[in-house]
Amino acid sequence: NGVGKSTLLKTILGRIPAIRGTAELGTGVDIGYYDQEQASLHDKKTVLAELWDDHPTTPEADIRSILGSFLFTGEDVDKLVHNLSGGDKARLLLTKLALRHDNFLILDEPTNHLDIDSREVLEQALNEFDGTILFVSHDRYFINQVSTSVVEISQEGSTLFLGDYDYFTNKKQEQAEIAELELQEQQAADTTSVRS
Fold it and tell me: What's the pLDDT tens digit per position in 126-169?
């Protein structure tokens, strides 16, 4: 926490200026952004209107079907956004992203507020997604289910690990063991030097 993960995402999106360096997107990159504050939702709209207003030419049955795939069924679609739980708002925002057909998704803590069923829906949707996904998460299980590489961000900088979360933790443990062994060897060498 506090090393600038959300700041990095907002910099890539061009919402805040870069502290240093630049972010350049390739031609034809369409970004979909999931904001953990869910600021793009409209409190006074219903769940159905939140989607349908963005896609007015899509038949209502198709909108309802998509909402159903994100666990909004029956009377759920008539609820006001204002009255939704944090998890429901998260699912609604993810549903909106699914309808946009972007090819680069940037997700800031997408599993916050989600129950187990909603997490499974999200994991499935992301694993079926054809584009690129960049996400920030503290949810280790989610990271392991979705990621193909992990970037560890710390005060010292960033390190790329080409694998899932299990690979990342194994490499971190291996690095710690190597550092401990090197320290022991250095201490043994120092002791030998003093005795000579």
Answer: 998 899 999 999 899 999 999 999 998 888 888 999 999 999 99
Rounded Cα gap, residues 75 and 79, in angstroms:
7
Angle formed at CA 69 by CA 66 and CA 47, multiple of 5 degrees:
55
Which among 6, 31, 15 is positioned nearest to 110, based on CA atoms?
Answer: 6
Q: Tell me which long-range contacts 37-43 makes (C-beta under 8 A, separation of at least 24).
A: 38/86, 38/89, 38/90, 38/93, 40/93, 40/96, 41/81, 41/89, 41/92, 41/93, 42/81, 43/80, 43/81, 43/82
pLDDT of 192: 65
Nearest to 166 by CA among 184, 146, 182: 146
Compute the Cα dihedral for 183, 188, 194, 196 and give only its sign. Answer: negative
> In this structure, what are the phi and psi dihedrals at residue 157, rounded to the nearest 5 degrees?
140, -150
